[in-house]
Amino acid sequence: MITVTEAKHIISNNVTALKPVTLPLLQARGKVLSTDVFATVDIPAFPQSAMDGYAFAYDDLQKELVIEGEMAAGSSSTIELTTGKAIRIFTGAPVPAGADTVVMQEKVKAENGILIIEDDKLQRNSNVRPVGSEIKAGELALPKGSVLTAAAIGFLAGIGVTKVEVIPDPVISILLTGNELQQPGNPLSYGQVYESNSYSLTAALQSLHLPVHRVYKVEDNPEVLTATLQQALDESDLVLLTGGVSVGDYDFVLQAAEKCGVTKQFHKIKQRPGKPLFFGTKDEKLVFGLPGNPSSVITCFYEYVTEALALQTKRPLQLKAVQTILAKDCIKPIGLSHFQKAYYDGEKVLPLTAQESYKLNSFATANCLLMLEGEKEAYKTNDPVTIHLLPV
Ligand SMILES: Nc1nc2c(c(=O)[nH]1)N[C@H]1C(S)=C(S)[C@@H](COP(=O)(O)OP(=O)(O)OC[C@H]3O[C@@H](n4cnc5c(N)ncnc54)[C@H](O)[C@@H]3O)O[C@H]1N2
Ligand code: MOO
Predict the structure, then answer these.
(1) How many distinct structural domains can be found in the chain?
(2) d(Cα 67, Cα 55) in Å, to the nearest integer?
(3) For residue 180, what are the domain limits?
(4) b or e along 203-236 (b: 16 or more beta carbons within 10 Å of the residue's beta carbon)?
(5) 235 and 350 inside one domain
(6) Any idea where the MoaB/Mog domain is (predicted)?
(7) Closest-lying ligand to the alpha carbon of 291?
(8) Which of 182, 252, 293 to mutate to test the pocket of ligand 1 (most atoms within 8 A of CB)?
């Protein structure tokens, strides 16, 4: 069995970023640019008024100015202001040639077509946005590797970009194994359990803004599992299997993966929950065999699958680590790393009850995983510890 750190190293050494695709701007939110984006035009493309008011030539500041004409936003008029004149102007409108300064309408008296300026702070070029002051044609707008936030999308639209080259979302399939699984909403027959792993995985992916391509449900039959895994691999960049990775007579995931040409990278980690976690690769495609217990599935997703997703997408998808202190004494199993469901109040972390891997009841109220690693077994109140914050 390998350690948590070794398992994470194996993942980082075996996952490559997905091939870039070109997408319409609005489909690229949250994705990472795979090329630099340059501006092709000056923005603003014309000297632009930043206020509703009057445009004039600063050299005329001391003169009595005659108001003549009007420039609204969107005006294509190319009139030129002559000396001694001011023009009514609105925010976003082109400042006409001959004018270089705009005074806010709150700081003037405009009577009988004559403008009297009452603004002692006014300077040459006040309230005029120069051509290219947001960005100039040919300048770098956003470098390769930028995450496209809402503001980045708006910025690119604002410089006229309509498409971008980005690292796409991976195509993710979930493959559930187990004859005992029953869909929630149906009555449970004796021996059945409600299928919950596809729900927690789909929701965890949703919180990372990643869609699920398809959920397959397979009975514990090696031929059917192999054929279904093959189909899922053909369609996907990442396959998440749940259940069937342990040593039972009905645990067929490892042999199905081998038959599909998946190279085993690791199986079994010195940890709880999720000891029999499997990770394999087929070319650039990834396969995780998540141990079926509901708490093992979601813990392994957060601790390992997010690492792989971060490498496939170049997005910061891993859980955020925080150093804190324990709110009470706790123990962990000898020789295993323990990811405990816990609650962090901003000052201390409280390990919760129900740490067994078949239970989700305290996980449902946890907001972090408490990482108890290495050989130490007993921890005391106020001991320093690391936690991983769970996304909502
Ligand atoms: N002899 C041994 N037995 C087990 C070992 C071991 O080392 N030696 N390891 C145990 C550990 S630890 C884990 S974790 C589990 C993992 O087993 P599998 O991955 O093979 O999972 P299953 O046996 O298929 O299922 C385990 C458990 O989870 C329930 N389950 C499965 N899928 C779902 C689902 N979609 N929704 C809800 N619940 C699900 C399933 O009914 C079982 O109760 O192996 C231990 N055994
Ligand atoms: O690894 Mo298993 O999750 O301890 O039950």
Answers:
(1) 4
(2) 9
(3) 4-19+169-313
(4) ebbeebebebbebbebebeeeebbebbbbbbeeb
(5) no
(6) 173-311
(7) 1
(8) 293
Mean pLDDT of 232-252: 93
How far apart are alpha carbons 228 and 231 in whole angstroms?
5
Q: Which ligand is nearest to the CA of 271?
A: 2
The gap between the terminal CA atoms of the chain, to the nearest Å, is: 32
Which residues does ligand 1 sit against, CB inside 6 Å?
176-178, 180-181, 193, 195-197, 242-248, 251, 275-276, 291-294, 296, 357-358
Q: How confident is the model at residue 63 (pLDDT cuts 50, 70, 90)?
A: confident
pTM across the whole model = 0.91
If we measure between CA atoms, which residue out of 311, 302, 342 comes closest to residue 324?
A: 342
* Distance between Cα 379 and ligand 2 center (Å): 21
Omega within 30 of 0 (cis) for the link into 187: no
Closest CA to ligand 2's atom 5: 357
Here the ipTM equals 0.97
CA of 277 to the centre of ligand 2 (A): 9
Task: Indicate whether 364 and 308 sit together in one domain.
Answer: no
Give Cβ neighbours of residue 99 (< 8 Å, ≥ 6 apart).
55, 56, 57, 81, 86, 87
Average pLDDT over residues 77-81: 91
**Residue 246 CA: which ligand is closest?**
1
pLDDT band, very low/low/confident/very high, at 374 (cuts 50, 70, 90): confident
Segment 167-187 shows an average pLDDT of 97
* pLDDT tens digits, one per residue of 95-127: 999 999 999 999 999 999 999 999 999 999 999
Residue 273 CB–ligand 2 contact under 6 Å = yes
For the Cβ of 226 lying below 6 angstroms from any atom of ligand 2, the answer is no
Element (H, E) at 155: helix 150-158
- CATH of residue 32: 3.90.105.10
Using the mean position of ligand 1's atoms as its centre, give its distance from the Cα of residue 276 in Å: 9
Tokens of 45: 């493309």
